[in-house]
């Protein structure tokens, strides 16, 4: 009798025992009178040794990604054949029976993390792409995190409640997906952009703690942080202050990161107001994994003869700078032009720069800053090979947003962002309303 197990269950206790594994073929290695099959399932990888003549004939028909059933003896590998990179690398299955469960056509791409397949090809053959370790691990991680969230919130007396997905169209941040009604001719449902209205009704009904893994739909162009369909953790609480929300989310994220990826987050996250975030980082969701902060230079340029700055200050606008220390030699004319395009996109008065060479301004708008030069060098502790970027606009928010995007572009280009670092923070005191630029 063969014991049916998963690849990760192969262990020393099963040596010389009969085992049965159902898995997919990852690699095939021919060595004359025997063949090695590297197989994998959701849990782990394992090696199969085929050396009996009647099984070799079956194995010759097997191709990559065939789904097969292996029955055999678990044996120790010879010392020189041990693979320390595999959890099951100290043993292998000596095949006694092989059954092809399902065949596979020629693969459109290799099932490897570093394959060169196009995104369209990966989506067309999604079931193959999901076999890659990196993507498979993300799917598993998402499941683990969702399970932890549910347990965490239920223990704190939250109710998991579902809200409708066919709703009335209401003004929100994006366009609605519209669904025509078959019964009520000429009328339409909308798919929810969020459960906002319904969770408020739940609070009014007296259910003071609610959550759901809410499916949301927004008819907008896809970007790195935008999708037409996505899932979000949605929760609502009655009779609480923002400090209660801070503590709840901090504890929940601490639990998720510790249990899912063994990372210890700080028990309390940094906090920053919306206005300070915009002033320092040019974003209401700032990346603080690198320093590179914006600075307001309006006061220092109040007597400037540079017309752009003079007009901006006359109209009570804002001038901000970004100082990149000891990297001026990294900025070619082409790179600066690319940054200027960002400033144009945000309709600022343009992006200007100057470098520090021989302890004075050089290039860019240096000739317009002769009066302020020494004061600025002293005030901002400028040194040789520093570069300063300036932008100005009558609208404070426009300047902040433009410089925020320029800041991110510079950080990415110079490799300033530590992708392995987690830097959570709360941004609070958002404005309740924003001006509509077309109607204000």
From TrEMBL:
Aminoacyl-transfer RNA synthetases class-II family profile domain residues: 149-294
Stored Gene3D superfamilies: Bira Bifunctional Protein, Domain 2 (3.30.930.10), GAD-like domain (3.30.1360.30), Nucleic acid-binding proteins (2.40.50.140)
Transmembrane segments: none
Record InterPro entries: Aa-tRNA-synt_II (IPR004364), aa-tRNA-synth_II (IPR006195), aa-tRNA-synth_II/BPL/LPL (IPR045864), Asp-tRNA-ligase_1 (IPR004524), Asp-tRNA-ligase_1_N (IPR047089), Asp/Asn-tRNA-synth_IIb (IPR002312), GAD-like_sf (IPR004115), GAD_dom (IPR029351)
Domain of life: Bacteria
Enzyme Commission code: 6.1.1.12
GO cellular component, one term: cytoplasm
Top EC class, one word: ligase
Protein name: Aspartate--tRNA ligase
GO biological process: aspartyl-tRNA aminoacylation
Source species: Borrelia bissettiae
